[in-house]
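User: Here's a structure from my thesis project, written as structure tokens. My advisor, Dr. K., wants to see whether a designed sequence matches the one we expressed. Can you design one independently, without my sequence as a hint?
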């Protein structure tokens, strides 16, 4: 996913701006893995294979996202999550 596309996205719940943490990108700076977070509602939206997962909570499956989150845990900037929200 191109950075210019991500810059146009907002949180689908409260329309707030999203913060991007890039995990992997290619030489053309297309983002393959990353995490978008909303400072207002504390929701996170992973970017997996270049696709941001921005479905409503009731249509998301944590079991599908969990392996990616665990593999990203080695990065100190990735916080803990619960119920699709960041925990302090």
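Assistant: Designed independently from the structure alone:
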């Amino acid at each position: 996913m191109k950075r210019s596309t991500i810059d146009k996205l907002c949180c689908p719940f409260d329309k707030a701006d999203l913060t991007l943490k890039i995990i992997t990108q290619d030489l053309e700076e297309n983002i393959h893995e990353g995490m978008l977070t909303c400072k207002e509602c504390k929701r996170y939206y992973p970017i997996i294979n270049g696709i941001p997962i921005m479905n409503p909570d009731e249509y998301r499956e944590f079991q599908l996202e969990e392996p990616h989150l665990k593999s990203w845990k080695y990065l100190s900037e990735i916080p803990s999550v619960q119920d699709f929200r960041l925990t302090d």
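When you compare it with your expressed construct, this may help: The chain is about 15% helix and 30% strand.
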